[in-house]
């Protein structure tokens, strides 16, 4: 196994190290049709169960960031292994931006205007509770307004710069 150790202070050090942390893939949706945007992210996690809160991390230069600040609402769509094409669209592969990222998949729009992906492992609609800006990114704390988790498909994860599927066929390290 090759060991990469970039120069101290190099941005590549953290990037290289974080490639070894597998993360679930989610699409964060923002805005209302026909002026929606969104992005693919792995920096999504539960902050608190009581009260229920999550955290998302977003680049402050991202077009989605200004929309989150403006609307105060966002959707989280946890992708199944069969939804890699959606992850690619929202990651901007092929130069796809804004409303065009919603093409090729089925979406519902909640009464509050949040877009949720049909067939995702789980979807949730959030109200922004707080935004904390630090360095190049912002931490957004969200309060759930609606949550649905109905699918039992395999999950899509991102590990070592590639998408992978993980599901019931995976043997746990503790076994």
TrEMBL record:
The keyword Cytoplasm does not apply. The keyword Oxidoreductase applies. This is Flavin reductase (DIM6/NTAB) family NADH-FMN oxidoreductase RutF. Keywords: Oxidoreductase. SMART domains: Flavin_Reduct (SM00903). PANTHER family: FLAVIN REDUCTASE, FLAVIN-DEPENDENT MONOOXYGENASE, REDUCTASE SUBUNIT HSAB. Belongs to the non-flavoprotein flavin reductase family. One of its GO terms (molecular function) is riboflavin reductase (NADPH) activity. Residues 18-165 form the Flavin reductase like domain. It comes from the Bacteria.
């Amino acid at each position: 196994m090759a060991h990469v150790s970039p120069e101290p202070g190099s941005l590549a050090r953290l990037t290289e190290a974080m490639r070894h942390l597998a993360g679930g893939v989610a699409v964060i949706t923002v805005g209302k049709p026909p002026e929606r945007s969104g992005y693919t992210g792995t920096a999504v996690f539960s902050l608190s169960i009581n009260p229920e809160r999550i955290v998302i991390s977003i680049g402050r230069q991202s077009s989605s960031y200004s929309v989150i600040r403006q609307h105060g609402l966002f959707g989280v769509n946890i992708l199944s292994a069969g939804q890699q094409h959606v992850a690619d669209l929202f990651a901007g592969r092929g130069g796809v931006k804004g409303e065009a990222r919603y093409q090729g998949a089925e979406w519902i729009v909640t009464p509050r205007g949040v877009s949720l992906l049909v067939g995702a492992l789980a979807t949730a609609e959030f109200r922004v509770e707080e935004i904390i800006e630090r360095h190049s990114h912002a931490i957004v704390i969200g309060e759930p307004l609606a949550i649905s988790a109905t699918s039992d498909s395999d999950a899509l994860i991102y590990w070592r710069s590639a998408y992978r599927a993980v599901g019931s066929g995976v043997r746990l390290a503790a076994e």
